[in-house]
Structures are given as C-alpha cells and as structure tokens.
Fold:
Amino acid sequence: MMFPELEAAADALIVEFGVTSPPVPIDTIMMTPKPGMWPKIDLGQLTLSFTSRGDRFAPRISIARLVVRQVVHTEWGIQHKLPDLVGYEPDRIADYARMVLMPWSLIEKLPERDRNPIGIAMAFMVPEDDAELRLNLRTDKDKPQP
Structure:
C-alpha cells in the first residue's frame, strides 16, 4: 500500500473541513460534504447494527469507513488517487478510515507521552484497538509490501 499518498490524502481531507486538532468531527464531515464529494447522508437513517460495536467510540470508526467508501470514487477521491490506493478493498478502506480519523499530522501535535494507543484513543475519541492499529500503519510503512 502507498502509505505516504494515503497519509497526504487523509491530511487533504481534514484540511478541506478545517480540522486542526483532535478529535476529527467525522459525523459533521459526513453530513456536510464539500462540492465534488459524496451526497449528504442522514445519520438518523443508519441502522443500530451499524453502530453497535462494544466500545463507546466504535460508531466513529464505522462512520469514518462510510465516509471513505463514499469519497473514494468521487471527483475529489479521483483527484487524490483514492480509487487506485483504496478501491473497494475492505482492509484498505479500514486503514484509510483510521488515517482520516487519526491523521498523522494531528498525532504529531500530541505531546510525546500521549503518542500511544491510550493517549491517541482519548484524544481522537476512538477505540484503543483502532488507535493501536493506526500506530501500526505508521510503523509498518517501511516493511516490504507483497
């Protein structure tokens, strides 16, 4: 996977919405798309199963995946090469969703002591396991890809 390009696309997305500090307001982003992005989505139409994972912040991850699925093949997504970088692959959708919800540019702004799964989970309002997976995306970036 092309991590630098995905990181840049995640940063570009949060810049579009004026996000400068955690947590990323993913629900607002989803409901107020910019031109060339997805059609407006009503959160009230989502099913309970969509948001019924154990952690209280799990719905934010689900919403981020929905945003990613919506944006990949839009005009904006094409401009940022998302069809090639993410496509329809569930693992890539999940990875990019974590990048959008926890952009590295905002993680770097956290105090060093908070750049761990617990600190990131608290700052970005995400489940701790997703914060750990996000950190692993950064540490795995230099490993050879199959």
User: Anything to note?
Assistant: DSSP finds nine helices and no strands in the chain. The chain has one domain: 3-139. The CA atoms of residues 21 and 74 lie 26 Å apart. Residues 3-139 form one domain.
